Amino acid sequence: MKFIQFLFLVFPLGLFAQQKNLNYVESSAGLANPAWEGGKTELEFADMNNDGHIDIVTVGDHGNPNVGTSHHGIEVYFNDGSGNWSVQMSGNFGYGGIAIGDVNNDGFWDAGYGIHHNYSSTDLGDQILEVALGDGTGTNWTPWDDNLATNGEDWGMFGTDFADVDNDGDLDVGSISFGCCAGVHVYLNQMDGTWQQSFGFIGGNSNSRFVFGDINNDGNSDFIIGHENGIVYFGDGTGNFSPAPAGLPGPGGIGAYGPSLGDVDNDGDKDIAYIYNGIEVWGWDQDNETWTDLSGDLPAGTNFEATQLHDVDADGNTDLFAFGNGTCTLWLGDGSGNWTQETSFTTSGASDCQAFRVGGDIDHNGIADVIMLAEGGSWPSYQNYLKCYKESSPADSLWIRGLFPKGGERFKSGSVQFIDWASEVPVGYEILVRLLFSSDGNTGGWNIIDDYLANSGRYQWTVPDVYSDNCYIRLL
Fold first, then answer.
1. 73 in Cβ contact with 66 (< 8 Å)
2. pLDDT on residue 378
3. pLDDT tens digits, residue range 300-315?
4. From CA 376, how far away is CA 366, in angstroms rounded?
5. Pairing with 28, which of 95, 202, 203, 292 sits 20 to 30 Å away (CA)?
6. How far apart are CA 446 and CA 439, in angstroms?
7. Mean pLDDT of all residues in 81-100
């Protein structure tokens, strides 16, 4: 198997000079219609209709489908480019987690979801783990799910993610139980609408979170979970996984709360954040094969419930957002495990975290925005509220900058990866994006990956058949 390794990326569009004091304002118009109910869900940012505006995708909370609400099926909240939202819903199922990716390599975003309410009388939504093909509209879905949830899973699945775990050029799917006791399962994509389990176990308590990423930088997908059996599992590149070496705090009786992945120390692998004794941030030391504490002076013993690692201000260093008890706080990272609190805001009327996501830039000002589902009130009058908070800086310059890969990552030839970027685009400008690749350094020659792309911040890429440790991606 050939490897490529990235040094750093080249971004020649405009002058990048991002030095702003960050401030977040609510931008939730349309997110309360229809009203939500209660319980957890999962939220994803994705440009579902390829118009260059980031949308919100979910399969809803306990009220989906039609349990005291009018929510049903896969729900896409379409963004008008300014942070105003309108929803389209498809199917008769819900209450779970969701992942977005292109599983059949046709250029359209598809959905994978683990659910508790598999109430559908049709093929779309009658299993607790499914994949459905999209057609580029965000409103039409075709089941592509044979043999999923056939290895002892019952009651429900929840947190779900996509990655090419066997490096064969297509996305595979992983998911974790809805509470106890369906366990954790990974299925390989057979590219014909059928799936084959490559790893899984039954039993144990779950906190409903599952995320893929390369944590030990060997070119294979690993995953983190909120489960009592452990937090990190290392992949071997064939679809099999084993528990990572001990040394992390936790995971506790129902698993780590709110785990997330991001490269905090700029060494090319994904580091881990989660809630245990306060906010924990840890990285894998590849040389010494041990865990390194990157938490710095982050607060201990807090009421936070979830984390998100993301380069919020696109300065090349991963930052940390945490949410819980009605407070959302951002710490900027310096690339060495040191943290500086940048801003904090409260979520009026809703405090208990049911879902949390950072990463989509809904208004193209170059700074990542925040979505969350939070519960207000108490039984029996509790209710969830879907909220979006956008960073309020004006878009007054034109630039583009890569977020992933950013340097030091190892990819296997033929595997599927994601290219992520941030951009600032002033009002009145309309831009398309060109992606180029060089395996011969930052002077090229450059080969076009793709051209005339909507400025959506993400592209799914099949790694070319080359061997090099001098690779670059260029965005125009």
1. no
2. 82
3. 888 999 999 999 999 9
4. 31
5. 95
6. 8
7. 98
Q: Is 72 exposed, middle or buried (0-12, 13-18, 19+ CB in 10 A)?
A: buried
Residue 397 clears pLDDT 90, i.e. is over it: yes
Q: Are 81 and 425 in contact (CB under 8 A)?
A: no
SS3 content of the chain, % helix, strand, coil (to 5): 0, 45, 55
3-state secondary structure of 20: coil
Contact 476, 12 (CB under 8 A): yes
Q: Taking residues 146-163, what's their average pLDDT? A: 98
Taking CB atoms within 8 Å and a gap of at least 24, the contacts of 298-305 are: 298/331, 298/339, 301/277, 302/275, 302/278, 303/327, 304/258, 304/275, 304/278, 304/279, 304/329, 305/257, 305/258, 305/275, 305/352, 305/353, 305/356
Residues in CB range of 262: below 8 A, 6 or more apart? 270, 271, 273, 309, 310, 311, 318
| Residue 415: HSE in the Cβ half-sphere, 13 Å Cα cutoff | 26
Give residue 348's pLDDT band: very low, low, confident or very high (50, 70, 90).
Answer: confident
**The pLDDT value given to residue 5:** 67
And the tokens for 118? Answer: 């598999």
Beta strand 3-6 with 468-475 is: parallel
**Mind listing the pLDDT tens digit for each residue in 375-385?**
998 888 899 99
What is the Cα–Cα distance from 37 to 71, expressed in whole angstroms? 9
Among residues 279, 420, 298, the alpha carbon closest in space to that of 359 is found at: 420
pTM: 0.96
The pLDDT of residue 435: 97
- CA distances (Å), origin 362, targets 47, 77, 255, 304, 425: 10, 12, 32, 25, 11
Q: Please give the share of the chain, as a percent, with pLDDT higher than 70.
A: 96
Please provide the size of the chain in residues: 476
Two tokens, residue 275: 């809630």
Phi-psi region of 208 (alpha: psi -120 to 50; beta: other; left: phi over 0): left
**Phi and psi at residue 414, to the nearest 5°:** 85, -10
Is-contact 55 49, C-beta < 8 A? yes
CA distance 95 to 116: 6
How many other C-beta atoms can be found within 10 angstroms of the C-beta atom of residue 229?
16
Taking the alpha carbons at both ends of the chain, their separation in whole angstroms is 30
C-beta separation of 428 from 35 below 8 A: no
DSSP-derived secondary structure for 170-215: S-EEEEEESSSSS-EEEEEE-SSSBEEEEEEE--S-EEEEEEEE-S
pLDDT of residue 7: 54
Peptide bond into 464 cis (omega under 30): no
Is residue 114's pLDDT more than 70?
A: yes
